Amino acid sequence: MVLKHLIGLFTNPANEWERIRDAGYSTGACLAGHTLLLALVPAIASYVGTTEIGWEVAGTRAVKLTPESALRIAVLYYGAMVVATFTMGWMIHWMSRTYGAEQPLSQCVALATYTATPLFLSGVMQLYPLLWLNLVLGLPVVGYTIYLFYTGVPIVMRIPPERGFLLSSAVLAFGMVSLVAMLAVTVILWSRGFAPAFTS
């Protein structure tokens, strides 16, 4: 299931969204056959990158994490990506009623799952965690992910493009607020003893 729609999402997203919609995947199939596998890419890459290469900020000496600390963070990172994908699917389902899109939760999770594909794949950049490089390469990925979402919403949710645009915008606003909330939770966790441990 992972590779079935991968190429189409990058070459002809509109047609691929129709195939995803018509396939009628269950929530479990989306999460198990796509999210749980592709979320491993950034989690493993970040573990390797932070323990073997290390972060460099403004030309300073590379800072590495201890393997234990990096593993703990990678596991939390992986869990956060899976939970976030399902939560976005649930939020699409909840918000869609306002826009006259009565689709089952499984369709909404499929939409969130496949929208996140470019973000998951770009996680390979974390093998070489150079901040400016990750930002330069990451911005086009975020842009394409947003394009993919705006393209997919009216097709998967079976609503007119203008209502799809409004629904997409509302869900993205929720996503941005959630991201800020996650950053705040991260800061709180770091101050409560969950901060990363660096090698000397």
Structure description:
- The chain contains 9 helices and no strands.
- It has 200 residues and is mainly α.
- It has one domain (6-194).
- The longest helix has 34 residues, at 161-194.
- The chain is elongated, with a radius of gyration of 18 Å.
- The chain starts with 5 loop residues before the first helix and ends in a 6-residue tail after the last helix.
- 33% of the residues are buried.
Range of helix content: over 70%
Distance N terminus to C terminus?
A: 43 Å
The SS-based structural class is: mainly alpha
Helix count, per DSSP? Answer: 9
Radius of gyration over alpha carbons?
Answer: 18 Å
Helix and strand succession?
Answer: HHHHHHHHH
Subunit organisation of the chains: single chain
Number of domains in the coordinates? 1
- Major sheet: none
Count of extended strands: 0
Q: Give the mean pLDDT.
A: 89
Indicate the proportion of strand residues: under 5%
User: Given the C-alpha coordinates, what overall shape results?
Assistant: elongated
Low-confidence stretches: none
